[in-house]
Each structure stands twice: as C-alpha cells, then as structure tokens.
C-alpha cells in the first residue's frame, strides 16, 4: 500500500500534476468535461438498459438501440476516461487514500464485465438478433444489473469529497 | 439581512448544511442522476432529429418516451438543486458560475418549450428548425452541466 502511496505522491508532485491542481480554471473545466462525458456514456447506457428491461423505447428493436448508440457511448467514455486520468494526476494522493475511490473502480470493472458479457454472449443469441417479441430473461437481468452498477459508480464517485481523510 | 442570508438561516437550510453530511451528498447524487437522464434523453432525440440514429423509428415515437425522461430528469435535478441552493444561498448567489448556470438553464428550458417541442412534434421537421433546435439545445444544456460542475471550484 505504501508503494502505491509513494507512486501517487510522485504523480501528483510531477510538474504537470502540480500545474493542474494549482490552475485557476483548468481543473474546474476538466471536472465539467468529466460530468458531461459521464452524462453521455452512462446516460445512454441507462437508456439502453431501460430498453433491455422493457420499461421504455419498446418501439425500437434492441439491436438497433445497441448499434445506433454505441459510437456516442464510446465518445462519452473517451471524454470521461481522459478527464478522469487528468483529475487523478492532480489529486492522486487523496484518491489513493479515499475509501470511496476503490469502490468506484470496482463497480466500473463489474459494470464493464456485465456490458461485455451482454455484448458478446447475450446479444449474439438468436432471439435478440432477430428481435423476438419475447426476449430471454437474461436480457432483462443484464439491463437491471447495468442500471444498478452504474448508479453505484456515480454514487461512489460523488461521495469521494465527502469521505473523511485517512492515513 | 439580505434575502439570501435569510434563506440560508432557515431551519431547513441548517438541517441540509449542518446536519448529517449524507443529506448533502445524497442531494448531489440525485442532482447528477437527474442531469444524466435529462442530457442523454435529449441527445437521443437530437440524433433522431438529425437523422443520425433510429431512422427506422418515427421521430414522434422516439420523442414521446425521450421527452418524458427529459422532464423527469429536470424535475429531479431542480428539486435536489433547490434544496442545495437553500443550504448555501449566499455562497451560490455570489458565485459567477452559478449565475451563468441559471441564465443558461432558463434559456435552455425556453428553447425546449418554444423551439424544440415544435420540431419534435412533427414527423419531418424542416432541416433549419431541426438543426437550430438541436444546436441551441445541446449547447445550452452542455453549458448548464459545465457551469454547474465548476461552481465548487470557483
């Protein structure tokens, strides 16, 4: 753990990390980009999930939803990821010691596994590809799992500044 | 004592600001979730309006569920945002990012009601109306998000 902390200190104290942390507007703008990228990527995933669970957008076939939204989800993710790396660069020590941060990362990994399993296994099955009226239960389950996991990512992310400092 | 100071001296404001930190954190989470739902639903309708996605589904059908989600998202964001504002009214009232956010928010809602709704109600809106609605709407709502996130760092 101390090696990780030492590494985080080194990252944060690099000239670029210090410039980011001390900048008047850059840090705030990067936070803004992080939020907008999140709204685009996780927001569109939420809408996809609502279709998978059958709650909304029933007029649009599931394969259409996946194909049409994928490029914009990816654009949003690139924005979230790049801004996220920059934020980490400026605040590495605080984040490494923050109790909410590892949970956020863990839920991102779980949500990612759920998404990949859906894309490459569930969505490849005939009833989904051929847009049957009644879809397998696994589709609905993947949708609910995604809704819950991404909500947890957002909650843990927003809790970061509320966590008491440790160490 | 001015109005903003009075507002943040009310009992409710004290509970939110000085009570359990989880109250403030929960409001922040709800505020973000509301905005996420609003912006993503808006993007979907915009994509359909420009013919970039869901071209096989009629615009009015995409818009029906989408518009509902936009207003649900806005309601959640405004409700949680109002409580957050009350808890620190003076601080928010003297923050330029907040003031700019409010101007952008009012403009965005006006565009939504006066322009966007008209475009989304027809099956094939005129390209000019569609592009103006999408461009203005996305610009204003993205601005709302950006300014909103900047408030705490100004």
Tell me briefly what this model is.
Chain A has 167 residues and is mostly helical. Chain A has helices spanning 2-12, 15-22, 26-52, 62-97, 100-120, 126-129, 137-159. Chain B has one domain (3-153).
What do you see in this structure?
The complex is a heterodimer of chains A (167) and B (154). Chain A is an all-alpha fold. Chain A is 78% helix and 0% strand. The model of chain A has no long low-confidence stretch (mean pLDDT 93). Chain B has 154 residues and is an all-alpha fold. The two termini of chain B are 25 Å apart. Helix content of chain B is 82%, strand content 0%. In chain B, helix 2 packs across helix 4 and helix 3 (21-49) packs antiparallel against helix 7. Chain B has one domain. Chain B has 7 helices and no strands. Chain B has helices at 3-7, 11-18, 21-49, 59-87, 89-93, 96-121, 127-150. Chain A binds chain B through residues 27-29, 31-36, 38-40, 42-44, 46-47, 56-57, 59-60, 64, 68-69, 72, 151, 154-155, 158-159, 162, and chain B through 21-22, 24-25, 28-29, 32-33, 35-37, 39-41, 43-44, 47, 53-54, 56-58, 61-62, 65, 69, 97, 142, 145-150, 152-154.
Structural class of chain A: mainly alpha
Please report the number of helical segments of chain B: 7
Q: What fraction of the residues of chain B are assigned to beta strands by DSSP?
A: under 5%
Oligomeric status of the shown chains? heterodimer
């Amino acid at each position: 753990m101390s090696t990780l902390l030492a590494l985080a200190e080194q990252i944060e104290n690099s000239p670029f990390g210090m410039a980011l942390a001390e900048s008047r507007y850059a840090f705030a703008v990067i936070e803004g980009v992080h939020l907008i990228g999140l709204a685009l990527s996780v927001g569109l995933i939420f809408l996809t999930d609502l279709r998978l669970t059958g709650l909304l957008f029933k007029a649009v076939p599931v394969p259409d939803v996946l194909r049409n939204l994928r490029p914009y989800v990816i654009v949003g993710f690139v924005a979230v990821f790049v801004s996220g790396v920059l934020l980490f660069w400026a605040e590495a020590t605080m984040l490494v010691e923050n109790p909410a941060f590892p949970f956020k990362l863990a839920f991102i990994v779980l949500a990612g596994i759920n998404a990949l399993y859906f894309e490459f296994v569930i969505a490849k099955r005939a009833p989904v590809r051929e847009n049957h009226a009644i879809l397998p239960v696994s589709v609905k389950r993947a949708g609910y799992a995604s809704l819950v996991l991404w909500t947890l990512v957002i909650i843990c992310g927003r809790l970061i500044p509320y966590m008491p400092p440790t160490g | 004592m001015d109005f903003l100071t009075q507002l943040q001296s009310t009992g409710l404001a004290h509970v939110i600001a000085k009570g359990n930190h989880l109250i403030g954190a929960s409001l922040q989470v709800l505020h973000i979730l509301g905005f996420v739902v609003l912006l993503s639903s808006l993007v979907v309708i915009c994509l359909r309006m420009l013919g970039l996605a869901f071209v096989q589904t009629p615009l009015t059908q995409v818009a029906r569920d989408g518009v509902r989600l936009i207003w649900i998202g806005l309601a959640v964001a405004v409700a949680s945002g109002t409580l957050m504002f009350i808890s620190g009214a003076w601080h928010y009232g003297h923050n330029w990012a907040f003031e700019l956010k409010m101007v952008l928010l009012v403009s965005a809602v006006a565009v939504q009601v006066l322009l966007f709704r008209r475009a989304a109600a027809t099956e094939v809106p005129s390209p000019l109306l569609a592009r103006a609605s999408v461009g203005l709407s996305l610009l204003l709502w993205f601005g709302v998000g950006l300014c909103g996130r900047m408030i705490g760092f100004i």
